[in-house]
Amino acid sequence: MRDVVFTRQSGWIPNVIREDGELKLTLGAGADANHDPRTFTFSISEAHLAVIQEDLARHLLLWSAVLPLCDAAGTRGRLDERAAVALLDPILLAAPADVDALFQRIRWDRRRLIAHGADIGLLERGQVCAAMRAATETSNEKRAQEYHAHHRRAERGAALGPLDAAMLRYTGQYLPGATVPRRIPYAVDPALLPEVMRVIATAERACAGMRIGRDPRRGKRATDRRDWARMETTVQAAVRRAHPELVDDAVRTVSFLMCSEAAGRAGTPMEDDEAAADHRAERGGRAMKTALSFTDDKGAEKKWLRNSPRTAAAEFWEFVGDRSAADNEVFTIEDEEMGEGIQLHFYADSIARITTLREGEGGADPEYRVEYSLVDGIGGYRNLVSAFVRGGCAALEHHGPWLSDVAEFERARRRRDTR
Predict the structure, then answer these.
(1) Distance separating alpha carbons of residues 185 and 181, to the nearest angstrom
(2) String of DSSP letters for 225-262
């Protein structure tokens, strides 16, 4: 038989229950192997219950001291009830000076107390009882998160000034765990907002006209790492020149914002400006290709015909974005009518162009000419694919050099990779 004897407004603060006639403190903490919350209990006395009911500060201090014991229990271990019970008298019944001294010797959850209104300055000076005079039953998790963020930065020596903090708040990157940056002007102190906007204007001028394209080799939503790095470097250099007082965290958050927005503008279709140029060339009758076959290393195949509503380049890169993976990095475009094709080796940043020299007759195998070339990132691949769908292997000639000797090509690839 279990009855609730005492509970507070916040359901997370430990409750007191009576189970089979015995008083116990019960709290939820941590999670089991299935990520469900765990519940821990241990015995208390009537004297402990009286303090818990009357003194919120002592109740919260006890909670913060018990939480590390719950963490130590892990996903399936038992709570060290002896250690938990040993905390009751020193925290609930001792004089404030003795409580302060105890918290100098034990592990405790500082963030829990800060979330419930503890004075941070007094906590850091070891005056835990005095710090809890303004404690509240309701919690402010954002306050605890901001303290944690500040503490982590201090540990690595990153001291934020008012403008630095304002930049991080503007981009939504002040708190730990923040992901995609965005513009949040209302999160900034109005007095600092004009200066924040001057920094943002500097960054915008620096990257005006720059773009970040998609890299379908890493999925349909992946961005070109080189484009990202180029914009990041440009923005950071400009911001540091114009605003040398900013710390690295603030400079990085501005470049992260610019790059993320540029990547978002790239959109999802693979039919970018380059593919649109192919489309105009094909519609104008200058393209040689009437039908193409796309294949990958897993046996998948997709056909493209000249009357398709989308360009060959766009269809191919969409095929790559759908199929590319760590174990699927070889893609081929073949023109059966012309007897030629290209094979893209994403794992090696290289390409092969293949031309049929003689068709197989009387059971004999066809004879092919295979030539290899190194490729400079996704931009190089896009140029090669566009050239091939417009004019076949002949149109690739000036994109070389092309090497037919495999050993010579491998030496060239190794030289590039060691640079």
Answers:
(1) 12
(2) HHHHHHHHHHHHHHHHHH-TTS-HHHHHHHHHHHHHHH
How far apart are the C-alpha atoms of 249 and 328, rounded to whole Å?
Answer: 37
| Residue 268 confidence (pLDDT) above 50 | no
Question: What is the rounded CA–CA span in Å between residue 65 and residue 103?
Answer: 8
Q: Are 314 and 269 in contact (CB under 8 A)?
A: yes
**Which residue reads 């963490």 in tokens?**
71
Report the distance separating Cα 60 and Cα 91, nearest Å.
10
Structure tokens belonging to residue 193: 């907002």
CB 216 within 8 Å of CB 328: no
User: Residue 111: what residue type?
Assistant: R
Q: What pLDDT is recorded for position 175?
A: 84
Residue 380 CA to residue 274 CA, distance in Å, equals 12
CA-wise closest residue to 39 among 20, 12, 62, 21: 12
Any residues with CB less than 8 A from the CB of 182 and at least 6 apart, and which? 171, 172, 257
Predicted confidence (pLDDT) per residue in 180-222, tens digit? 899 999 999 999 999 999 999 999 999 999 999 889 998 888 8
Spatial contact of 27 and 63, defined as CB atoms under 8 Å apart? yes
The per-residue pLDDT for range 213-257, each reduced to its tens digit, is 889 998 888 889 999 999 999 999 999 999 999 999 999 999 999
Using CA atoms, how far apart are residues 167 and 176, in angstroms rounded to an integer? Answer: 15
CA-nearest of 154, 232, 245, 234 to 196 is: 245
Q: What is the pTM of this model?
A: 0.69
CA distance 271 to 376: 20
- Helix residue ranges per DSSP H, 269-326: 273-283, 312-323
What is the distance, to the nearest Å, from the Cα of residue 307 to the centroid of all Cα atoms in its chain? 41
Cα 269 to its chain centre, rounded Å, is 22
Measured CA to CA, the distance from residue 137 to residue 160 in angstroms comes to 31
Structure tokens at 93: 């019944």
Number of other CB atoms surrounding residue 132 within 10 Å: 25
Quote the tokens at residue 194: 């004009």
Q: Tokens 């939820």, residue?
A: 28
Whether 275 contacts 317, CB under 8 Å: yes
Q: CA 195 to CA 58: how far, in whole Å?
A: 44
- CB atoms closer than 10 angstroms to residue 156: 7
